[in-house]
């Protein structure tokens, strides 16, 4: 029941829902557990679902042909996860979504979600507001930061944005997110401590 309460609370941050709409949304949810290292989605797969994270931590990353990994984002408790662009276009994802810890999810299929979105405009408004806030507005500063700001400044911003989960991440994961090597990250941490 707490899981559903957290889900409801997150939904209503983006749009107010009537009881009927909440009930319809809850009806399409399926609980799922993933172990550390399991994939919610592998790069190259066509995604079929979204999920709400009750417990756990995920990395959202792309692996290049030479094996280099670039982490675009981390998702933790009370976040929604999906390869959104691939879902919208019904094509293979450019990203993998991997559990960094044991996780508990509420998963919902894209086909079910689209059906209730057509029936209930509130769900469409929720989806639009969620996408605008998390994938449009939040994305622009990241794009500028990667091209303009120093690695030290990017790390300091990372510490602010991901303060609640930094201790749960490994150094190479943080470095991959910042677009630097773990050695560079070590140097930055030492310089900040001085």
UniProtKB/TrEMBL annotation:
Domain (Cyclic nucleotide-binding) ranges: 13-134
Gene3D superfamilies listed in its UniProt record: Jelly Rolls
Coiled-coil blocks: 148-175
Short name of any one Pfam family annotated for the protein: cNMP_binding
Stored InterPro entries: cNMP-bd_dom (IPR000595), cNMP-bd_dom_sf (IPR018490), RmlC-like_jellyroll (IPR014710)
Keyword flag Metal-binding: no
SMART domains for this protein: cNMP
Keywords: Coiled coil
Protein name, UniProt field: cAMP-binding protein
Source organism per UniProt: Galbibacter orientalis DSM 19592
